[in-house]
Each structure stands twice: as structure tokens, then as C-alpha cells.
Amino acid sequence: MAFNNPIAYLLTWTTYATRLHGAENGSHDADTNDRGGHFVPPSFRYENLRRSQAKELPFILDAKCRGAVFRALMQHADYREWHVFAVNIRTNHVHLVVSAGAEPAELLRQFKAYATRGLRAAELIPDRTRVWTEGGSRKWLFTRDHVDAACDYVLHQQGDDLPME
Predict the structure, then answer these.
(1) Residue 44 in 3-state DSSP?
(2) Whole-number pLDDT of residue 21
(3) Contact status, residue 133 vs residue 12, Cβ threshold 8 Å
(4) Does 113 have pLDDT greater than 70?
């Protein structure tokens, strides 16, 4: 089994100012976001520093926003002929398991851009609103078992299903 050619990726990205470094629920930074990396240690001072640096209020995805993001992601994947195995859009983050002939950083960039475009097209956000944090998590999935485990995580380990409009 070759472990240098992933068959899919698990992409995760958060909404703006909702998962701050130092928060108790954990976050990754450039130093901890490697395969198997640990969370940034909880720190009230660090979390407050990050909150004070935010340029806007935290962005929360309501049912209308989640629906617009879902439609935009699926439309873009369909246009690119990428296969989406699973997607779950939460109030403050998005999980997506996708197979595509592109680098994961580029996939993440495109999906975030098209999700934002979908929100703006639906007139759910003003033009200059910050929707997403920078970057995101990119996990390489090398086997069908990896894909199945990622899909289970995305679809069944995120809490109750949230409504979408």
C-alpha cells in the first residue's frame, strides 16, 4: 500500500474568531497543525489576547448560512468533478471529506472562497464581512478505512444534526 498518494482529504476550517488560540476547547497553530499535532495549551491570557486582536465579532453560521454554504460547496465540487464523501456544516466550523485532483491547500482555499461567494450571492453577509479564519486543517487519507473513519467522524461524531435552509 503506497502512503504517498492520498485517495481523499479531510478538510476542516473554522468561522472567524470562534476558535481562538488558548481557548479550553483547543485549537492548532502553525506549530501544532501537523499530522498528530497537539492542541495549543489552554491559556486565558492568550485567548484574551487573540480576542482583542480580532477585527470583527465572531461569525456564526445560522440555518440559512449553513444551507448557502452547503449548496456552494456541492456546486463547486460538482463543477470541478470532485467527489464529496461527507460534509458537515456546524455553527462555527465546516468538515469536508473530498477526493480531488488538487493539492489540499488549494482545495481548502477554493472551498472557502466559494462558500463565501455563496453567502454573498444569497445576500446573507455584507461584502467585507470576515467569514473564515486563515488556513484550516488538511488531513491526508490514504486508504478506504481512513476515508470511512473520516466520514464517520464528520457525519456521526459532531453532535446533533443542525437544520439548514
Answers:
(1) helix
(2) 47
(3) no
(4) yes
Distance CA 91, CA 160 (A): 12
Residue 137 parent element (H or E): strand 137-141
Residues 52-83 have pLDDT tens digits of 555 567 889 999 999 999 999 999 999 999 99
Summarised one tens digit per residue, pLDDT across range 85-109 is 999 999 999 999 999 999 999 999 9
Q: In this structure, what C-alpha cell is assigned to residue 160?
A: 446533533
Give the C-alpha separation, 78 to 92, whole Å.
Answer: 24
16 Rama sector, left if φ>0, alpha if ψ -120 to 50, beta otherwise? beta
The three grid cell numbers given for residue 54, joined into one nine-digit string: 480580532
Phi and psi at residue 101, to the nearest 5°: -90, 55
The SS3 of residue 120 is helix
Enumerate domains of the chain plus CATH numbers.
1-16+61-165 (3.30.70.1290), 18-53 (no CATH)
Distance from the Cα of residue 106 to its chain's centroid: 13
pTM, whole model, 2 decimals?
Answer: 0.83
